[in-house]
Every structure is written in structure tokens, then in C-alpha cells.
Amino acid sequence: xxxxxxxxxxxxxxxxxxxxxxxAEWDGVRNYQVRNLMRDDMAVGDLAFFYHSSCEVPGIVGxxxxxxxxxxxxxxxxxxxxxxxxxxxxxxxxWMMVEVRYQQHLRPMIPLERLKREQRALGDLWVLxxxxxxxxxxxxSAQWHKIxxxxx
DNA sequence: GCCAACGTTGGC
DNA sequence: GCCAACGTTGGC
Length: 152
What we know:
Layout: E1 3-8, H1 15-21, E2 23-25, H2 32-41, E3 47-52, E4 59-72, E5 96-111, H3 112-117, H4 119-122, E6 136-139, H5 141-148
Parallel strand pairs: 1-3
Antiparallel strand pairs: 1-6, 2-5, 3-4, 4-5
The structure holds a DNA duplex (12 and 12 nucleotides).
């Protein structure tokens, strides 16, 4: 089983939105590295941190589980959708998504600032790499458990 | 709103 | 295949 960290802007889709809906499709990914991670490396049953980005206090706010993989992202094929990609062939869709299910909030949340402070203990955490802009990044088992130990 | 760090695009 | 211009991400 693998672990992940998945970013979302809370103004767009927050952990509270996910809790209210229980499951959600992680659509809108338009980055090939991230698509390849979802397509090739994610598996049903994997766990992921829900990370709030571009907000007042960025950081990890909860946990979700991957419940479906290999789904075609319909927003890429819908000309009326903001995320429409005219270059995606409906016969051979290039953008994929996964389905996630809410597991729990982490209270208190674990701010990015805390992760930075714990960098020595965490080692090479992808989300702390300078210039990292991938919206989904892998987390090692050791890092996952270390981060969980930061919250009661 | 600024800016650094990328990824993507398109002319050549 | 190079590379400049442009767009996006995301912390601050």
C-alpha cells in the first residue's frame, strides 16, 4: 500500500466539502507527471493526506482513501467546462482521475510550517522541495507515520 | 499582489 | 530539437 499527499485549494474544494459528500472524484488534473502517478502508481486502498494549498494556513488537514482508479476525467472532454482540453481525444482520453473517500480530519491540522520545522526527521519530503508544484506527491511509509505522530 | 520555479507552447 | 515567451502554482 502506498501513501500520498494531495493538494486542493480550500476555496475550490476543502476537506469539509469532502466530508459532506463522503466521496469525490479528483478531477481537473492537467499535469502529465501527476496523471502518470494516478494512472500508474495509485491503487485502490492507498491512503492520502488532504492538503490545503494557497490559503491562509497551508498544510495537512485530513486523511482520505483511494477508492477508484483509472477513471476518465470527463471535465477534459466537456467544452463547456473551464478545465476543457480541446486536444484530448474522446476516443483516447489523456486525462484521468481517481475517486477518494473521506476518512477523518486531523485536529489540529498540521501546518506546512510544522513540516518545515520537522524536516530533519522527515527527510526528503517532496512537498518541501523548492519549486515543487505537483498537486499529488508520494509520501513514504516512514514519513506518513512520522507526520501522523505530530497530531494527537 | 509579488515572485520564483517550473511546465507548455510554438516558431524556427 | 532548441529556446524564448507565456501560463500556472503556491508560498509569502
